[in-house]
Recover the amino acids of this structure.
């Protein structure tokens, strides 16, 4: 008998490894401010994504790493496990560390806990190291291995996409399409839509899945990036009441695959 591995299985197999027993671990605190919260007081997904970006950069700057080793990173995949959504005015303690390395990329883990020590959010982001002059992937330098290698415990990670558009499109799932209008504020210094702005699309789609509010996994995988002049369409595939896939197209080309569902 041939065992069929579904998209749900592949997403469920993505790891959120435990904090390291040795090596670098960076900590920070962050309150949930008014601009981070939904009308109901829940911390929005795009706010969580910004927290991940900010603490990653803060950790890098704190190491003393400079130049391309500090700034030459683009995110390929972000996974956020929400055990329970943080809420307005709650103060979070964040811890981040590098949990795995590949030839040209690194996996960064972040954990968010409340004041009682309860883990609310686990996140894992796969960052690709790039040459800032050519914008092409660049092999990790000895400096990067020295700074962040110990916390990985020798763990090696791959960089393949899990949410494959062709598989989703052939699934036969209930399909709907909507247009997404980008704004000037969505774009960053690289003239691509910022990572956190993609999570606004996920947040909007979550409105129609109100039953998914605790113990939910969210995944965003990036392709080449969305530019300011592109026409953006969001294709939603309801695989089941507990699993939704989004394919985000820019000028008819898929530039992001997203998944959210019950854990």
């Amino acid at each position: 008998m041939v065992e069929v591995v579904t998209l749900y299985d592949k997403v469920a197999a993505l790891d959120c490894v435990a904090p390291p027993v040795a090596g670098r671990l960076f900590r920070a605190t962050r309150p949930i401010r008014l601009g981070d919260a939904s009308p109901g007081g829940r911390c929005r997904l795009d706010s969580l994504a910004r927290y991940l970006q900010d603490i990653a950069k803060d950790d890098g700057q704190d190491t003393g790493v400079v130049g391309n080793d500090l700034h030459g990173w683009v995110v390929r995949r972000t996974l956020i496990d929400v055990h329970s959504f943080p809420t307005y005015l709650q103060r979070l303690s964040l811890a981040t560390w590098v949990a795995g390395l590949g030839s040209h990329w690194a996996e960064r883990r972040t954990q968010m806990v409340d004041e009682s020590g309860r883990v609310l959010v686990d996140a894992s982001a796969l960052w690709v190291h790039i040459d800032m002059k050519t914008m092409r992937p660049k092999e990790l330098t000895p400096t990067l291995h020295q700074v962040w290698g110990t916390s990985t415990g020798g763990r090696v990670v791959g960089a393949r996409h899990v949410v494959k558009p062709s598989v989703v499109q052939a699934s036969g799932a209930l399909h709907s399409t909507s247009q997404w209008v980008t704004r000037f504020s969505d774009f960053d210094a690289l003239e691509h839509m910022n990572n956190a702005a993609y999570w606004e699309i996920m947040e909007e789609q979550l409105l129609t899945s109100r039953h998914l509010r605790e113990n939910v996994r969210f995944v965003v995988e990036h392709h080449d990036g969305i530019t300011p002049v592109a026409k953006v369409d969001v294709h939603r595939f309801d695989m089941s009441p507990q699993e939704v896939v989004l394919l985000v197209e820019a000028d008819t080309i898929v530039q992001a695959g997203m998944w959210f569902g019950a854990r």
About this structure: Helices lie at 7-12, 45-63, 68-71, 142-148, 165-169, 195-206. The mean pLDDT is 96. Residues 164 and 176 are 18 Å apart (CA to CA).
